[in-house]
């Protein structure tokens, strides 16, 4: 099976992501608010692109149940952007116009372009492999942080969202998707999964450093 094999191959990368300063400090509630503010604005941009990439997966699918699954996941991604993010934007005193006017960072831009390119250029199986790390890594990070975070953690709403059962069921559904693939396509799937996992690491690291375009 592709999914368990892909996870095993990328376990060291997941561990490196889990132990990033951003996630360590998010768990103990000491993450500086400017870093989380940077993250949540960029995540708003990312989730729009992620929803578009899921919509492409729905369009490429032949099975009606998969069309519904991917299209529903695209809707949920936008709903998260409009609920969880909007709550934090209110806390930070950010208007929708200010968020929209904040440019995607290099990592956000690259990650979104990677997912959209895979949707337009790659077979469905490869595209799904590129989408899977965002689901899977977020769930495992959410669970890990949930197990260590106190009830008074200022980022509790974010933690509860990604450690919750609703999100977990969506992740299980993505992991369970089966796609026929030959050896060459399987190699491309593993490459896509690994690249997306790298970009997950980079996204959190970039937020912690509050990185922007250097020029």
TrEMBL record:
Give the organism the record lists. Methylobacterium isbiliense
Give all residue intervals belonging to the Thiaminase-2/PQQC domain: 21-209
Q: Which residues form a coiled coil?
A: none
Looking at the record's lineage, which domain of life comes first? Answer: Bacteria
Show the Pfam families listed in the entry: TENA_THI-4 (PF03070)
Q: Which CDD domains match?
A: TenA_C-like
Q: Where is the signal peptide?
A: none
Q: Mind telling me which InterPro entries this protein's record contains?
A: Haem_Oase-like_multi-hlx, Thiaminase-2/PQQC, Thiamine_Salvage_TenA
User: What is the protein's name according to its record?
Assistant: Aminopyrimidine aminohydrolase
């Amino acid at each position: 099976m592709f999914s368990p094999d892909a996870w095993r191959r990328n376990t060291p990368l997941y561990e490196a992501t889990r132990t990033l300063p951003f996630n360590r400090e998010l768990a103990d509630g000491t993450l500086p608010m400017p870093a989380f503010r940077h993250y949540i604005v960029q995540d708003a941009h990312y989730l729009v692109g992620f929803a578009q990439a899921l919509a492409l997966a729905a369009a490429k699918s032949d099975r009606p149940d998969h069309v519904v699954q991917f299209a529903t996941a695209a809707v949920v991604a936008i709903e998260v952007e409009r609920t969880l993010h909007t709550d934090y934007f209110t806390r930070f005193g950010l208007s929708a116009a200010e968020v929209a006017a904040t440019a995607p960072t290099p990592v956000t831009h690259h990650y979104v372009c990677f997912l959209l390119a895979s949707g337009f250029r790659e077979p469905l199986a490869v595209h799904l492999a590129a989408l899977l790390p965002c689901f899977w890594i977020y769930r495992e990070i959410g669970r890990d942080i949930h197990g260590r975070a106190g009830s008074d953690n200022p980022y509790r709403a974010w933690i509860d969202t990604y450690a919750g059962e609703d999100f977990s069921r969506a992740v299980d559904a993505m992991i369970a998707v089966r796609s026929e693939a030959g050896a060459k396509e399987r190699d491309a799937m593993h490459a896509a999964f690994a690249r997306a996992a790298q970009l997950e690491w980079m996204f959190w690291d970039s937020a912690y450093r509050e990185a922007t375009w250097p020029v």
